[in-house]
Amino acid sequence: MPDHDTERRAMELERPLPQPITPEAKPYWDGLREHKLMLPRCRQCRRAFFYPRVLCPHCHAADIEWFEATGRGRLYAFEIAHQTFNKAFKVKPPYVLAMVELDEGPRLMSNLIGIEPDPRRIRCDMPVEVVFHKLTDEITLPLFQPRGGAA
Amino acid sequence: MKELRNSACIVGVDESDEIGTLPNKSQLTLHLEAVRNAVRDAGLKVSDVDGVFTAGQHSPATIGEALGITPRYIDGTSVGGCSFIIMVGHAVAALHHGLCDVAVISHGESGRSGVGVSPRRDTALPGQFETPYGFGGAPTYFGMITTRHMHEHGTTLEQWAQVAVSTREWARLNPKARNREPITVADVLASRPVVYPFNILNICLVTDAGGAVVLTRADRARDCAKKPVYVRGAGEATEHVMLTQMRSLTFSEATRLSGAKALAMAGVTHQDFNHIMLYDAFTSGPPIMLESLGFAKPGEGVHFFETGRSTPGGSLPINTNGGGLSYTHSGMYGIFPIIEATRQLRGDCGARQVPNCRLSLVNGMGGMLSAAGTLVLANEP
Fold it and tell me: Which end of chain A, N or C, is less surrounded by CB atoms within 10 Å?
């Protein structure tokens, strides 16, 4: 159970904290705190995957290592939210919901920032790069911006 | 699978006494009304029911208890809104093997008013990897499938809007439909933006509703009150839950697999159908389902919704109850397309009756095209 201090701090945050953080994902969250985008990779078939789990989803081997990804990828798909969809998320609409396909292969959900939330400006497959967004001393989130800096 | 073809029939279907906005009815009441009505439609009694199938917040044990029966066969498969479609196949297998004699598939959901509902909780994975970015609720996921489809195939907002227009044309003919005023493509494009690429008229209703389906073996079905509807084919599959894990965002592998299994079991081809029911939580869903099922090439599913094809009087009517977009959508919509297909095959649909309706395809998704169920239903064996 979170203590009162944790609850009070969470109330003040602009975003809900990721929870529950699972033991198999700890290297991911530890890496983000140090501004590294860490991904799990199978030592048998050499393919990266995400989300973290103890079996490789490609070859089902239980032989997993972690490596630092480039933080580069492309915008696989996007949406522009014109309202808020969960009460703890306080970023003012409109904002861009993003599915990013990393150069290493895996996809993850995030936000696209540093660009006007306008469907005429945002294109699937546009190159993007990670931006580390500190939420608390423990939690840093990977957000993404157009590659080469904000547009 | 072929030995199961036509071995069981849908003999009773109905909604709860009312559907819509029902702040004075609990979710459990919606279940019980639907079961009582569907059993009555079959000319059977609640005490005849010995197989209970349900998905959602209430387990089959709760539904059995509330009905006051002790079922000898139960199924609580819960993979989203198509669970009820999948359960038709499960019920056919159970009936064939004598595991039960009268199967009831029950749905009740106080999706709008939230009466008698447990609070929703994030499951572990979205809470960890999606909620911090503002995701929450189906529109924030299904739009991803849609923008990727537009990018890969050049589909347009106008084409998605046409799906809403076609479906509303059917709702106008259904007295039970919630929204019955005619709309145009321009109306959809001018409606309130929710999450690009969706305006409010691209998104299903949120209602309170129950529905139930009763099945029994074909030999017994002939003694029931209404003309039996034969289950010729059934198929199911799952691919993913987290949308990032879907192999291609624009093609549903679960839908393809479930459709291929159902058509093979039934021994029919795509050209044989003269009625189709598809799970329309969003306007982009039905065209992508038609593509994944093999009715249309990738990118061409939208053409099925042009006037004269899916619309009343058209060559291949789709979503003739008015769909989740205009008739009702309580949350897990999958029971309702089965009810409509059964009524069409019986010839019970009045102003919206599809002439000479003989073979109907029902396809639904669970989650974001994550799971799928497909049925081939027929008015004769």
Answer: N
